[in-house]
Write a structure and sequence with these properties.
This protein is an alpha/beta fold. The protein has 3 domains: 165 residues, Adenylosuccinate Synthetase, subunit A, domain 1 (Adenylosuccinate Synthetase, Chain A, domain 1); 91 residues, Adenylosuccinate Synthetase, subunit A, domain 2, CATH 1.10.300; 161 residues, Alpha-Beta Complex (Adenylosuccinate Synthetase, Chain A, domain 3), CATH 3.90.170. Helices cover 33% and strands 22% of the residues. The strands form 5 sheets. It has a 10-stranded mixed sheet, sandwiched between helices. Strands 14, 16, 17 and 18 form a 4-stranded mixed sheet that branches. α3 crosses α4 and α6 packs across α7. The mean pLDDT is 94.
C-alpha cells in the first residue's frame, strides 16, 4: 500500500496541481482533504489547461477515483460549474465522489465574507470559506449529507436563520429567506446527490486493499490556521497530518509526504513576507498574465507578491510536515536572472536565527542572503538533472543540503511532462 500526501511548503501557489496531476498517473484514488474553492490548482496536460478549485487533480486519470473529502468546504454552485466545465472538455467525472461529511458553503457565507473584507480585510479570496468553517465549529452548518436528506433541511434552516440574518444585518447586507435557500438546496440535491458517499467506507476500502492513495493539499504551511502567519491565514489546516485526521485513519499509514516548494516564493494577500523582492525583480518573474503559469492567482487573478527562496521557511515546513521528498517547481522562471538570492537565515533583535518567528516578529526580521550565479539559459528542454546548467544544479543542491530532504521532482515548465524525476 502507498499513501502519499502532497502539501504546500510555502504560502501556497507552489504548483501542487501540476505535481498531483503528474503523480496521479499511478494513483488509484486522489483525495482533496481540506479547504474550499479558494484553491486554484492549475493543470496543463494533453487534455488542455484547467484551473481546478474543488475537484482533485487526479480527475484526468480515467481509472482514478477522486474524492472531495471530510475536511473540505464545498460550494455546490462552484462544484456543479466545475463538473460541467470538465464534461464540456470530454473529461469523465464518473469516478468523482463527495464526502457526506464535507461542509456546505452557503450563499450567505460568501456575502458575509465579502462584507467583512470591506470593513477590515486581510486579503481573503471572498469565497465564504472562513464563515463556513466558523459555522462548522458553532455546529450550525449544513453538511453534504443534508442535501440528500430533505427532512433535515427545513428544521435546521429554521434554527440557523435568526443568527445568520443578525450577522448579515450587522454588516449592512440583505437578509436571506428560508424559502429561497430551500429552493437552492433542492437544486443542489438534484445535481449532486449521486456523488455523495460515505468517505470512511470508501477510503478504508482502498486502504485495506493496499491501493495507491494520494492526498491533495491546498495552500501551504504558512497559511495554516494554527501554525501560519495568523491572522493572515486560511481557516483550515493545510498540513500533512490533517489528511489522516480528516480521513479517519492512523497517521502511521502515511508512507510518504511530498512538500511542494516554488524555486522562489510567492504570496497573495496581506501579511509579513520576509524575502519579498523589489517591484523590478518581481516583474521579471511574474509575466503579463497571458500565460497560464504567470504569477497571478488562479482563483483571484491578483498579481502575486514575489520573493527570494527562504530556507528558514522550508525548514519550518519540513519540521511541521516531515517531508520524505520535495518537489521544486518553476525552476525555469529563474532562467533569465543573472544573479539569484537565497535567504539562509534571519536577523532578529541583533541575533541570527534559522527558526520561524511569530507573525509580529516576522515584520521586524532582516533576511540574510547568499547570492548565486544565474545560469542565463533555458532549462525547459532539460529531461534529466544532468542536463541542467551547472549553476542551476548548484542552486538545487544547496537547497537540498540545507533542508536535508531529497529534491525528487524538479518542475522546469508548465506542462505535465516538464518534470525532471531524480
Amino acid at each position: 500500500m502507498s499513501v502519499k500526501v502532497i502539501v504546500g511548503a510555502q504560502f501556497g501557489d507552489e504548483g501542487k496541481g501540476k505535481v498531483v496531476d503528474y503523480l496521479a498517473k499511478a494513483a488509484d484514488m486522489v483525495v482533496r482533504f481540506q479547504g474550499g474553492d479558494n484553491a486554484g490548482h492549475t493543470v496543463m496536460n494533453e487534455c488542455g489547461t484547467f484551473k481546478l478549485h474543488l475537484i482533485p487533480c487526479g480527475i484526468f486519470n480515467k481509472e482514478c477515483v477522486c474524492l472531495i473529502g471530510n475536511g473540505t468546504a464545498v460550494n455546490p454552485d462552484v462544484l456543479i460549474e466545475e463538473i460541467q466545465m470538465l464534461r464540456r472538455n470530454n473529461i469523465s467525472v464518473k469516478k468523482l465522489f463527495v464526502s457526506s461529511k464535507a461542509q456546505v458553503v452557503m450563499p450567505y457565507h460568501v456575502t458575509l465574507d465579502v462584507s467583512m473584507e470591506k470593513k477590515a480585510g486581510i486579503g481573503t479570496t471572498k469565497r465564504g470559506i472562513g464563515w463556513c468553517y466558523a459555522d462548522k465549529f458553532l455546529r450550525k452548518n449544513f453538511r453534504m449529507s443534508d442535501l440528500s436528506n430533505p427532512e433535515c433541511r427545513q428544521p435546521k434552516l429554521h434554527e440557523y436563520l435568526p443568527l445568520i440574518n443578525a450577522e448579515l444585518r450587522f454588516f449592512g447586507a440583505p437578509e436571506v429567506s428560508e424559502k429561497m435557500l430551500l429552493l437552492k438546496m433542492r437544486g443542489w440535491s438534484d445535481a449532486l446527490s449521486p456523488l455523495i458517499c460515505d468517505e470512511f467506507s470508501l477510503l478504508h476500502g482502498f486502504l485495506n486493499e493496499e491501493k495507491n492513495v494520494l492526498f491533495e493539499g491546498q495552500l501551504g504551511v504558512m497559511k495554516d490556521i494554527d501554525l501560519g502567519i495568523y491572522p493572515y491565514v486560511t481557516s483550515s489546516n493545510p498540513v500533512a497530518a490533517y489528511a489522516a485526521v480528516s480521513g479517519g485513519f492512523p497517521a502511521s499509514k502515511i508512507g510518504g509526504i511530498c512538500g511542494v516548494a516554488k524555486a522562489f516564493v510567492s504570496a497573495v494577500g496581506d501579511g509579513p513576507f520576509p524575502t519579498e523582492m523589489s517591484d523590478e525583480k518581481s516583474a521579471a518573474l511574474r509575466g503579463d498574465g497571458t500565460a497560464a503559469d504567470d504569477e497571478y492567482g488562479a482563483r483571484t487573478g491578483r498579481a502575486r507578491r514575489l520573493g527570494w527562496f527562504d530556507i528558514p521557511m522550508l525548514k519550518y515546513a519540513h519540521a511541521v510536515n516531515g517531508f520524505t521528498e520535495i518537489a521544486l517547481t518553476k525552476l525555469d522562471k529563474l532562467d533569465t536572472l543573472d544573479t539569484i538570492k537565497i535567504c539562509t537565515s534571519y536577523m532578529l533583535n541583533g541575533e541570527v536565527t534559522e527558526s520561524m518567528p511569530d507573525t509580529n516578529d516576522l515584520y521586524r526580521i532582516k533576511p540574510i542572503f547568499k547570492e548565486f550565479e544565474g545560469w542565463m539559459q533555458g532549462t525547459s528542454e532539460c529531461k534529466s538533472f544532468e542536463m541542467l546548467p551547472r549553476a542551476a544544479k548548484a542552486y538545487i543542491q544547496f537547497i537540498e543540503q540545507k533542508i536535508g530532504v531529497p529534491i525528487r521532482y524538479i518542475g522546469n515548465g508548465p506542462f505535465r511532462e516538464n518534470i525532471i524525476t531524480r
